[in-house]
Amino acid sequence: MLVAPHLKTEQTASAPSPAPQTSWRFGDLSAAELLPKLKRHLYGQNPNANWQLVWLNNDGRPVIGLLPKMSWSVYYLSDSKLPNQQPNIYKVIKNCRDGLYSHDKTNQAITSSYMSYSDWQEDLIAYSQAHDADDTYDKDSLSIEDHDKQLSYQHGLIGFIGYDIAAYELSPAARIKLAAQPCAALGHYDIYLTPNAEQTSWQLTIKDSVTDTDTDDEQKGVLVKALISYLDIMDKELSNQTFEKSVLEESYKTTPLLLKAQWSKRDYQQAFDKTQNYLQQGDCYQINLTQQWQGAFNQNLTDNVTPMLIDYLPALHRNTHAPFAGYLAVNDFNSKISVNTPDHQFELLSCSPELFFTFIKDDNTGKHHIRTKPIKGTMPRGLNTEQDNVYKQQLIDSEKDRAENVMIVDLLRNDLGKYAKIGSVKVPQLFAIESFSNVHHMVSTITAELKTATHPLAVLFGSLPAGSITGTPKKRAVEIISELEGAARGAYCGTLGYMNFDGSGQWNVLIRTLQANNLSNHKLGKKERHVNLWAGGGITVASDCDAEYQECLDKVGNLLGVLTQDNSDK
């Protein structure tokens, strides 16, 4: 739990206390540069707090969540561990921040329950609706056009839902593999940082739920005062005039992280040929085949600092500028060996360019609208402007990529049709070309108005995994993917984002995404943080193996290049 700091002051006892500071410049660091320093600083100030930092770039409207009021971590259970041998049951660990402060012994900080995927979904919807009824937003009434421009995190849930759990639920009989890590994690973030309107400082937002607890009056505000003091200390350190700008902007020292492809070119060829067999037999029209790169951090248990994935965030984001990038860390309360420290966490670091869903609420009508922008079609960037334009035009003219794109558009139209008002599903844009640091992508846009009784969380859960990273038809595609890839994807190809309690929100597709898990070997005196990265693409009967294999390399090449850089001597 957070402990109120003993703050030194030169004021006399009768002097009035100044209003606490709630905004900081933090040395003018960007969010990606700030986050590694912020994480280590907060754990250094209080290692016992349930810090679960999360950052969403959110297409240029970033948010940093700090300490959730409530968090849900979901874990897969093997059949031997299921209560009463019930299938499709998950262990859901709830962490309640207020339980740490309450004198009511029935208000536990950490509880475990066993529930189905649909029961967890209903639990989240009920929680969201209860808080939406009590919530007040510091904003004027906005139309859908205004929301479309100003959509940002206000108050709600932030987190991820992995591919594995969604694919498993889509086809439970196929026994799709699930990785030994959290299947999903969501937190109610009522304390968070966002940039001010001028983008010159970070503003701390504290919702009423922080202080409106059942704890004693003297305990109210202890949490906020402690957090503000920690942020004051960090801001003062970063603004120290003795620090040079280059030092402030420098990321934490990182050593090369080498990730090795788990498939050789021959392995990929074999999987590609099997994919073609399924396509030619008519099982699917398109199958998204991906492959894995894997490596590990190695660190002796006696060392003070363990490498973390977050230390690579500044360099990765500078390289990609991904609009839907994000970072999340989950404390592993499910592990017997874990303790609440940064090096005992599951980490998710995404450089995703792909939007899954944007949910927009029109405050004038109370209606919810949805927008999705699937990516299907990729070409590399050129070495110069002339070559770059040639590649871009090749993508524009590619009948194969246009055909793949249409398949996914149709799949998503069908997905949304289950939740949309009749006649509201539209495709305002087909085959737009969007350019990123290493590739050009073909992107289409689909919009719809949700049925009145449909909660946006139900749409999110019911539409996973995204069609752009499965293929079509979706159910058969995920079964074939599980067979051919031979390994669980984990969070990769799931979704990361936020859902405000009013039902507005934004979620990405977790491509260009790294995952890190901690494993300890006490006999050898070592910790190993396993890291993996995936890449792939949609395969059709018209696909060429060499081109598809090269596309995988194009998608992860710049990320691998950043990870292998050595700045440990800087």
- Gyration radius, rounded: 24 Å
Alpha-beta classification: alpha+beta
Shape: globular
**Low-confidence runs of at least 5 consecutive residues:** 1-18, 102-106, 213-218
Q: On the 0-100 scale, what is the average pLDDT?
A: 85
- The percent range for helix content is 25-40%
What percent of residues are in strands? 25-35%
Q: Can you give a write-up of this model?
A:
The chain is α+β, with helices and mostly antiparallel strands and 570 residues long. The strands form 2 sheets. Strands 1, 2, 3, 9, 10, 11, 12, 13, 14, 20, 23 and 24 form a 12-stranded antiparallel sheet that branches. Strands 4, 5, 6, 7, 8, 15, 16, 17, 18, 19, 21 and 22 form a 12-stranded antiparallel sheet that branches. The two termini are 36 Å apart. 29% of the residues lie in helices and 27% in strands. It contains 13 helices and 24 strands. Helix 1 (31-45) crosses helix 5 (222-238), helix 1 (31-45) packs antiparallel against helix 8 (313-320) and helix 8 packs across helix 13.
Features:
alpha+beta; 570 residues; globular; twelve-stranded antiparallel sheet
Short structural description:
This protein is α+β, with helices and mostly antiparallel strands and 570 residues long. It has 13 helices and 24 strands.
Write the layout of secondary structure elements.
Layout: E1 23-24, H1 31-45, E2 54-56, E3 63-65, E4 70-76, E5 90-96, E6 110-115, H2 117-134, H3 144-150, E7 156-161, H4 163-170, E8 184-189, E9 191-195, E10 202-206, H5 222-238, H6 245-249, E11 260-261, H7 265-280, E12 286-300, H8 313-320, E13 326-331, E14 345-350, E15 355-361, E16 368-372, E17 375-380, H9 385-397, H10 399-417, E18 426-435, E19 439-449, H11 456-463, E20 471-472, H12 474-485, E21 495-500, E22 505-508, E23 513-521, E24 526-539, H13 545-563
Antiparallel strand pairs: 1-10, 2-3, 2-13, 3-9, 4-5, 4-8, 5-6, 7-8, 7-21, 9-10, 11-12, 12-20, 12-24, 13-14, 14-23, 15-16, 15-22, 16-19, 17-19, 18-19, 21-22, 23-24
